[in-house]
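re the bet — no i am not wrong, look at it urself. input seq straight from the record:
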Amino acid sequence: MRKAIGLLVNPIAGMGGAVGLSGTDGKLEEALRRGAVPRAAARAVEALSRLGGEEIHWYTAAAPMGEDVLAAAGIDRFTVLYRPASPTTAADTKAACRAFLDAGVDLILFCGGDGTARDVFDAVGRSVPILGIPAGVKMYSAVFAVNPAAAAELLRLAGEIPCRDSEVMDVDEEAYRSGRLAARLYGYACVPYIPERTQGGKQVFEEQDEERAKDAIAAFIAEIMLPDTLYIIGAGSTTARIMERLGLTPTLLGVDVVRNGEVLARNADEWTLFALLERYPRAKIIVSPIGAQGFVLGRGNQQISPAVLRRAGLSNLIVVATPGKLQATPVLYVDTGDPALDREVGETLLVVSGYRLGQRKRVVHAD
């Protein structure tokens, strides 16, 4: 059955991640100053290149908001309905989506992060299904595929698989950059759903037992830390507790670097991490999955890039999470932007869940 699909790409989505900005909204000039490079187009092409043989007519926006991506993926059956300003803005996203709606599309496929999801939802509400190709820094909304390959699979089956009501989250960017997660439910969108292909929304765990578990994990990690070893400590409240156990102040939503009890970098970007690894090659990386979503890498910690992971070695990756979080997280995901590296993670990961306690969790590879 021939489908009509609207394609929208936010060309600046995700540019703040690797440079440690915790988001790009309102920070494009600063991201560019720090050496950020676009990533949304490559993520979109990765998905679209799997759909060239499908019976789809695409409707899109001009230039970097969709037209260029379709051409790069080798797709020529498309109609440009909207021409954005330069640089593009949220108003362009909304206007393009309203044009798609007027054209009678069956679904809107967008590439971006939570801010893009909110703008798409603002324009179309529940009048048409939407689906996100993840390309932002943080993606707490449940409207995204787990990675570009999964987005292609979901789109291919759209109309044959059920849609579910999925949360669109409104995340306060300024609060996030200052180390505080302030998110509220913005609305429910209709999203094609296959288990382990469509991501869940983030959950926050604050029960008393969870706090004790964080303390136990921190005590164990502090006990096994090696001298003269670089520790790259990712975002999250569980990893923050490790820093606090060491008597250090954490960057709750950033990446810190510690060696011999001394902080070498706070809220480090990708280049800082790689430079420190060049100087101190003996290293460990400590991360915690996003609650309920299960993403270990690729959501909120893009500073820990494929280059950084390869330099440190995947064997030196330590995953920590409380039992409560793991109970609500049936599987784990990795989405570094390098599918070959993602596969090297393997089929399972051992997760430290207490003092000398661990659980082995299955890793899903959606390709």
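see?? DSSP finds 13 helices and 16 strands in the chain. told u. also The chain has two domains: 3-192, 208-364. so pay up
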